[in-house]
Amino acid sequence: MEFPLIQSWLPQQEKGFRPGLATFFYSDGKLHLKAELFDEDVSSTATNHGQKLWEHGDVVELFIQKEGESGYREYQVAPNGFTLALHYPEISCVADVRSGERDMEEFLTKEIPATKITLTPEGWEVLLSVHLTALPGEKFRVSCCRYDATQGGKAVISSTSPHPVRDFHRPQDWREFIPVPA
Questions:
Q1: Helices in 67-162 by DSSP H: which ranges?
Q2: What pTM does this model have?
Q3: Which of 5, 74, 110, 158 has its C-alpha lying 20 to 30 A from 167's C-alpha?
């Protein structure tokens, strides 16, 4: 499945928007995300796994939710190879983090997903692979999102999901994915 990164919550793309393309596929018991991103200034100041990568520069995110479950997983990867892995057991946990009732670190996992990052003349590419146990016919929801950091400015964000509002944590907007071995 292949989707462009879009800004569906806006009537038109904001200034500074750079295109990207995300491809989701399944093989060897893993969900793979390949993201191809246009970017003139690929950067990250991250120095360790588990950091809030969106505070450090460019980031690609992968969200996964099994159909019928309230919780979901979130993976982030920076262009310098550092990752962040979170598991929210219930969607309400995200609201608790946003309100300050709970700390995001409570949902950190020790998982370090497999990544391959390639800098290209046009920007950067990410191959992110995470274990996904799936029975035949099981459905999931997936989304690829992006923080495109700009020098001295706020990040320009985009997603493969048709979000009606500027919020990546809306599984109801994510794309349906049925794992079929390649």
A1: 92-99
A2: 0.95
A3: 110
